[in-house]
């Protein structure tokens, strides 16, 4: 059983499709199929159940998937530990979409000045996807917003930030000096879709104060939320870091009276994986930033 066979197998298991897996692995589909067939011949049973347009794991395939992930993780960690010089190497960073474009660019720039030989790879996705990737060793850490169901992961809080009410300039509340949560009950909200934790943060804050926001729009991009507010589709709440990056005069931001809605940004990582000196330095850099 060869390491490339295991890597090929895991990619097919993840994509559930030979064609997509072959494209990502940069090999031909016949070559990938031959590799999997050779693996199945060695095991004496199929690892995939072939369907018309997809494949699914057999019971043997499910066992092999778990073991192959462990084997490759051990080898990756061993190589990283042997070559760890504290200056070179690759760090795979995950971040949720409401954090990545606002917080990471300046952090990555300052870190690259201090560690010019380091390579940083960024993956932007939802909290659920990033936590799974952390557990499986596909990324080294993730910058997310609490709370998270992070089993077997270490969590370090980085900072707390306010969620600002965002309104179109001509909105009735825009001219008020103080805005209470009860003042916004009558207005529809524009929220991110349910896969994004910011929507949960907003809804949870409102529910704890006996208020369920009525959502009239759902989108997957924070920039789209801001644009929909500008077009008077509704109002919303936006993190402070996104507000600082917004130069538009087509919307205004206001603080709610206390208790103000906030979210806590944290970094999570899998402590069972090898922690290189470079990775530890990057986590320290995040905390300082």
**Count the helices. How many?**
10
Between the first and last Cα atoms, what is the distance in angstroms?
A: 45 Å
State the domain count: 2
Sketch the topology as an H/E string, one letter per element: HHHEEHEHEHEEEHEHEHEEH
Which assembly state applies to the chains in this document? single chain
Radius of gyration: 23 Å
Low-confidence stretches: none
CATH class of the largest domain: Alpha Beta
Biggest sheet statistics = 7 strands, mixed
Structure description:
- The chain is α/β, with parallel strands linked by helices and 289 residues long.
- The protein has two domains: 3-82, Winged helix-like DNA-binding domain superfamily/Winged helix DNA-binding domain (Arc Repressor Mutant, subunit A), CATH 1.10.10; 87-289, 3-Layer(aba) Sandwich (D-Maltodextrin-Binding Protein, domain 2), CATH 3.40.190.
- The chain has ten helices and eleven strands.
- The strands form three sheets. Strands 3, 4, 5, 6, 9, 10 and 11 form a seven-stranded mixed β-sheet that branches. It has a two-stranded antiparallel sheet with strand order 1-2.
- Helix 5 (100-114) links the parallel strand 3 (89-95) and strand 4.
- Helix 1 packs across helix 2 and helix 1 (3-15) crosses helix 4 (59-82).
- The mean pLDDT is 91.
Provide the fold topology.
Blueprint: H1 3-15, H2 18-25, H3 29-43, E1 48-50, E2 55-57, H4 59-82, E3 89-95, H5 100-114, E4 118-124, H6 127-136, E5 141-145, E6 154-167, E7 189-192, H7 197-207, E8 215-219, H8 222-230, E9 236-239, H9 240-244, E10 252-254, E11 262-269, H10 277-288
Parallel strand pairs: 3-4, 3-5, 7-8
Antiparallel strand pairs: 1-2, 5-11, 6-9, 6-10, 6-11
């Amino acid at each position: 059983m060869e390491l490339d066979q295991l890597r090929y197998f895991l990619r097919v298991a993840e994509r559930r499709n030979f064609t997509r897996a072959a494209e990502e692995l940069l090999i031909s589909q016949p070559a990938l199929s031959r590799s999997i067939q050779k693996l199945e011949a060695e095991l004496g049973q199929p690892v995939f159940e072939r369907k018309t347009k997809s494949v699914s794991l057999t019971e043997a395939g499910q066992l092999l998937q778990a073991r192959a992930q462990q084997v490759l993780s051990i080898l990756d960690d061993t190589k990283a530990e042997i070559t760890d010089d504290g200056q070179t190497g690759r760090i795979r960073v995950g971040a949720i979409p409401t954090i990545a474009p606002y917080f990471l660019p300046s952090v990555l720039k300052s870190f690259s000045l201090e560690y010019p030989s380091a390579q940083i790879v960024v993956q932007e996705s939802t909290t659920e996807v990033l936590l799974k990737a952390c557990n499986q060793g596909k990324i080294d850490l993730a910058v997310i917003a609490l709370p998270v169901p992070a089993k077997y992961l270490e969590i370090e809080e980085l900072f707390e930030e306010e969620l600002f009410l965002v309104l179109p300039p001509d909105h009735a509340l825009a001219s008020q000096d103080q805005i209470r949560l009860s003042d916004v009950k009558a207005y529809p909200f524009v929220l991110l879709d349910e896969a994004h934790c910011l929507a949960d943060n907003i809804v949870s804050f409102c529910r704890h104060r006996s208020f369920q926001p009525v959502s009239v729009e759902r989108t997957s991009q924070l920039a789209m939320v801001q644009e929909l507010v500008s077009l008077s589709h509704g109002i919303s709440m936006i993190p402070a870091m996104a507000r600082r990056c917004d130069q538009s005069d087509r919307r205004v931001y206001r603080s709610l009276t206390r208790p103000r809605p906030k979210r806590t940004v944290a970094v999570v990582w899998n402590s069972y994986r090898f922690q290189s000196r470079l990775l530890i330095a990057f986590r320290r850099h995040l905390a300082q930033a």
